[in-house]
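Table S2 (text version). Query chain:
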Amino acid sequence: MALNQFILFLNLGGGEVVIIIFVILLLFGGKGLPSIAKTLGKGIREFKNASSDIQKDILKGNEDVIEQVNEQVQELKKEIEKE
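Corresponding structure-token output:
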């Protein structure tokens, strides 16, 4: 599924993918393909992990801002109730 999404991301057609695979086979041979696939898989996994970490950091930063806003709202409510 991830390969299909990657190919769609690059906007490649079937013929273009076949040509790319053929060129890779010519350059690296059949024995080199597993190591290339392994390296590509590791790179994609690291990219996903990094993007996931960034998303978590952004969400955590938003939680801090939301907490501060809620504290300010509570303080304003207390001031309004005093009057």
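Notes on Table S2: The chain has two helices and no strands. Residues 14-82 form the longest helix (69 residues).
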